[in-house]
Amino acid sequence: MSREARLLNPDPSAYLPHRAPFLFLDRIVSLDPGNSATATINRTSDTEGWPIFLCIEAMAQLGGIASATGEGGGGILAAIDRAEFHEEPVPGDCLLISVRVLKTFGPLSMIEGDVSSGERIVATATVTLKIGRLS
Hints:
Elements: H1 3-7, E1 27-32, E2 36-42, H2 54-67, E3 75-85, E4 94-105, E5 108-117, E6 120-131
Antiparallel strand pairs: 1-2, 2-4, 3-6, 4-5, 5-6
């Protein structure tokens, strides 16, 4: 087991200032800082009517975790460069969010990601994030 894998904190709230109901990620599955990350969201019946566009925010949250240098970093969604919605997730779905860092320039990171449920692609997007404290 690699050192990074041993140090992975699966709790997204360790990396983000978001809390319920604005934290959309349930568990971080993998993290390669500066490169990529995967996480899960478990849709339950109490998330009925969860708009598909929130998949973009989930990708942005995970992209911030992948781009930041460690726990407690901050960030902000600066731009949605491209977004495609394929089908709406339904209660009971376990969504897998995958992101990879395409490039960084100063405090900005361009992230490409997708949300899937099993073999179904729910949404794909490319977003730009500003990484670092908001102050």
